[in-house]
Design a protein that fits this description.
Oligomer: heterodimer
Largest sheet of chain B: 6 strands, mixed
Number of helices of chain A: 14
CATH class of the largest domain in chain B: Alpha Beta
CATH architecture of the largest domain in chain B: 3-Layer(aba) Sandwich
Distance between the termini of chain A: 27 Å
Number of strands of chain B: 24
CATH architecture of chain A: Orthogonal Bundle
Largest interface: A-B, 26 and 34 residues
Number of domains of chain B: 3
CATH topology of chain A: ABC transporter involved in vitamin B12 uptake, BtuC
Radius of gyration of chain A: 20 Å
Order of helices and strands of chain A: HHHHHHHEEHHHHHHH
Helix content of chain A: over 70%
Strand content of chain B: 25-35%
Structural class of chain A: mainly alpha
Radius of gyration of chain B: 25 Å
CATH superfamily of the largest domain in chain B: P-loop containing nucleotide triphosphate hydrolases
CATH class of chain A: Mainly Alpha
Number of domains of chain A: 1
CATH topology of the largest domain in chain B: Rossmann fold
Largest sheet of chain A: 2 strands, antiparallel
Strand content of chain A: under 5%
Chain lengths: 319, 512
């Protein structure tokens, strides 16, 4: 057993723990339903696909968030980037809807990246400020009311339709995941993200253009948040104030539970996917168990802290 | 003036850092009422000595007695309680607090449990008056003071702790000549009042002017202690060098005139570089000598494009102009590589794999389109490991698992992968074993023979003598002496480093 644990790479350990915990959640939930209803709805494909569809929005946000966290930064502008992209997409409408939303994400990412990389403002403060500015702009744009525009057909198709019984949103999540995973593991830019996150000085002195790397990562995060916002608008058929608020903390939690080091430099993309699934299932099972909101929040927070404590116990390779 | 029992006495003290010896079996004593100079090259153990006395580090073995009592300091505050106070080389003031706050930071005067600002200010005024710095306002923020004034505040702060032994580690290096005079006077007054002082300085004339007892350290050993005047300056220099084990260096080629590939003129940066002129030809290894902190590191960083606001001219090959960033330095026509000073924080991403570290500067070389080609990446990594004979388990292992020497080889291999023409080395052999050192010396010569221009800063004089075709010695941000061929001797380098003149060193001053 000990030798088996020793063979696991440090980066993979959190992923295994999180995967194990997903099984625990499913089993506990099934035990509960067996005891109360005598059925096992949690293990049906239908239930799992629904969970993955819910997870798709969070998964796309978390994918972008991960690129930023790998640098040791954070993107707190996600909620209103999502909302702004969704609102502008549904306002513009027609074939230009989705490109407009993505352009919003690109711009927010650029502003964040330039602010953090060139003005050297801590990302936690800068992105918080940008989030607030975006909220102000959206309130000005809508007059503070829910806009009347509805999502376009394409947005609805991507978010809520199904191909062969599988929600299209899952395919979108899969596509985004493949792109981000390929960037992180197969491109010079991805390697530069890890290098910069590990030790910015060493990366800079290796001739990596660390500022561009930072800008690039924030642009990815902005684009991902915008995509999630557009999908969410398609799912609920319209954009509304504060639609992104519920995604910020779960996205950060998913990335960190998936084993990405909050100070940057380490983490595998598959971990983030596992983290997203864990969070979505945990939420769902707790609500099936009819846990009151207060108890859900407490359990949710405790799980995150406990898992990070467990990860902290793994041997670190440091000098 | 000295009393009979020493105030502080070390007997049989050794200190090891992770197996590396910093001090070995040192017996040392210093008395009240004397100014005692400690001399030695970089890495001779001076800093460790004072850190032990000030309670910053504890000795691995050996005893420390204060006024005959055996003491075991585990924190600087305990040393202070025993009257041993240190003015450190690095300024320890908090820039955003006032002078008065800083002076009383450790033990502010209190009234009803709250800091008594008036008493604190009075105390600061008294102490500043004692070191003849009445012009410093205790309410001023430290950040607004000049470097020299800050150093004076630092001394006032130390005096506030009522020292019986005051340790001054390079405390005069930042002072203007006016403040130096003041400090001399203050130190003289303190000595007459019975305070002992331990004075560490690289400026020989200061030591001559101020101290009555001198101790020489070399390679972590206490070589000799004598009274001022018992030894001549050249004797002292000889004691500092000693007769060391000779390193194995590859043979040097016959000296020849080489057209300069890298030509620097009038390079300046803030107050650290004050007009550096230097030429390095293809196939040539030029050494940078001098004591720590005379601008050698800044020179290398300026050439590599790290520093902003560099003045002067740099010509590399046919191309003119300063470098804007490391990314620019490594590519295009310049093709510069820098092996940085601290491989753990500047050279390597320690938790990342050996392969990723090796490729960090050359991803574009192993990519096709946006994607890294795994086959080419692997081939490049294997070649690099092979070429420098880096002893690795698997290239996927974290680079932190390697020994210091092999880590340094990874840094160098990373840069050789970029196929550089100018190679800047910042003390590349620090903290690595003798065997690897020899491999690096051979590698440097091999690279030079292939037509690279190499600029090599080392704190080890033996390396400069053994490896370099020419040695430029820096002092105060400029090159004061250039030595060539037979003229590269330990005596010549040391005297040039201390900026003193000894008759047996052939000197060729190129800057006043």
């Amino acid at each position: 057993m000990a030798s088996l644990i020793a063979r696991i790479k440090p980066d993979d350990f959190p992923i295994l723990v999180a995967s194990g915990f997903i099984l625990v959640i499913l089993l506990a939930g099934t035990g509960y339903t067996l005891a109360t209803l005598g059925t096992m709805p949690l293990l049906t494909p239908n239930y799992l696909l629904t969970q993955l569809q819910t997870g798709a929005f969070l998964g796309i946000v978390a994918a972008g968030m991960m690129t930023v966290i790998l640098l040791g930064h954070i993107d707190l502008s996600v909620p209103w980037t999502m909302t702004a992209a969704a609102m502008m997409a549904s306002t513009i409408g027609g074939p230009a809807a989705i490109p407009t939303g993505l352009a919003i994400g690109l711009c927010v990412g650029l502003v964040n990246g330039l602010g953090v990389a060139y003005l050297r403002i801590p990302s936690m403060i800068f992105t918080l400020g940008v989030d607030s500015v975006m909220r102000g702009l959206m309130v000005a744009h809508t007059g503070g009311f829910a806009p009347q525009d509805t999502a376009t057909d394409l947005m609805r198709y991507l978010a809520a339709d199904k191909i062969l019984g599988i929600p299209v949103a899952i395919f979108v999540w899969a596509a985004v995941s493949i792109v981000i995973a390929a960037i992180l593991s197969r491109t010079a830019f991805g390697k530069s993200i890890y290098a910069t996150g590990n030790r910015e000085a060493a990366a800079y002195l290796s001739g990596i253009r660390t500022r561009w790397v930072i800008v690039g990562a924030f642009v990815i995060s902005g684009l991902c948040a915008a995509s999630a916002g557009i999908l969410l608008a398609g799912y609920s058929n319209k954009a509304y104030q504060g639609m992104g608020n519920a995604y910020l903390l779960p996205a950060i939690a998913a990335v960190v539970i998936g084993g990405t080091h909050i100070l940057g430099g380490r983490g595998r993309f598959i971990g983030t996917v596992v983290g997203v699934i864990l969070i979505v299932l945990l939420n769902s099972v707790l609500s099936i168990m009819q846990m009151p909101e207060a108890g859900r929040q407490i359990i949710y927070g405790t799980v995150i802290i406990t898992m990070l404590l467990v990860y902290g116990r793994t041997a670190r390779v440091t000098s | 003036m000295s009393t009979d029992t020493p105030f502080v006495q070390l007997s049989g003290v050794s200190k090891f850092y992770a197996g590396v010896r910093a001090l070995e079996n040192v017996d040392f004593a210093c008395r009240r009422g004397t100014i005692h100079a400690v001399l030695g090259e970089n890495g001779a153990g001076k800093s460790t000595l004072i850190k032990i006395m000030a309670g910053v580090v504890t000795p691995t073995v050996g005893d420390l007695t204060v006024e005959g009592r055996k003491e075991h300091f585990v924190a600087p505050s305990e040393a202070v309680r025993n009257g041993i106070v240190c003015v450190f080389q690095e300024l320890s003031l908090m820039p955003d607090l006032t002078v008065a706050d800083n002076i009383s930071i450790a033990d502010p005067p209190r009234r009803f449990g709250l800091i008594d600002r008036r008493a604190q200010r009075q105390r600061a005024e008294e102490l500043l008056a004692r070191i003849h710095c009445e012009d410093v306002d205790p309410r001023a923020l430290v950040r607004d003071l000049s470097l020299s004034r800050r150093q004076m505040v630092e001394i006032a702060k130390a005096l506030g702790k009522k020292p019986k032994l005051l340790i001054l580690d390079e405390a005069t290096s930042a002072l203007t000549s006016r403040d130096v005079e003041t400090v001399y006077k203050v130190l003289g007054e303190l000595r007459d009042a019975g305070t002992g002082m331990l004075f560490i300085s690289h400026r020989m004339h200061e030591v001559e002017a101020l101290c009555d007892t001198l101790s020489v350290f070399r390679n972590g050993r206490h070589i000799e202690t004598f009274r001022k005047g018992e030894r001549s300056q050249s004797d002292i220099v000889k004691l500092m060098i000693g007769r060391d084990v000779e390193h194995q260096f590859p043979p040097k080629p016959a000296p020849q005139q080489r057209p300069p590939h890298l030509a620097i003129s009038g390079l300046s940066w803030e107050n650290r570089l004050n007009g550096v002129d230097l030429k390095v030809g293809k196939g040539e290894i030029v050494g940078l000598g001098g004591l720590d902190g005379q601008g050698q590191k800044e020179l290398l960083l300026a050439l590599f494009g790290v520093l902003k606001g560099v003045g002067g001219q740099v010509r590399i090959g046919a191309g003119n102009g300063l470098t804007g960033s490391p990314a620019e330095a490594k590519g295009g026509a310049k093709r510069i590589a820098l092996v940085p000073e601290d491989r753990k924080t500047e050279g390597l991403m320690l938790p990342m794999s050996i392969a990723d570290n090796l490729l960090a500067s050359s991803y574009h070389k192993v990519s096709s389109g946006p994607f890294i080609d795994p086959a080419r990446a692997k081939a490049a990594v294997d070649e690099a490991i092979q070429r420098l004979q880096i002893k690795v388990g698997r290239p996927e292992d974290a680079v932190a698992t390697l020994s210091g020497g092999n880590q340094q080889k990874v840094v160098i291999a990373k840069w050789l992968m970029t196929d550089p023409e100018v190679i800047l080395l910042n003390d590349p052999t620090r903290g690595i074993d003798v065997g690897t050192k020899q491999e690096l010396y051979r590698l440097m010569r091999e690279l030079a023979d292939r037509g690279n221009a190499i600029l090599f800063y080392s704190t080890d004089y033996a390396e400069l003598i053994g490896c370099c075709d020419r040695v430029s010695v820096m002092y105060g941000g400029r090159i004061v002496t250039e030595l060539e061929g037979e003229a590269i001797t330990e005596e010549a380098i040391i005297s040039a480093s201390l900026n003193i003149h000894t008759p047996d060193a052939k000197r060729e001053a190129i800057a006043s």
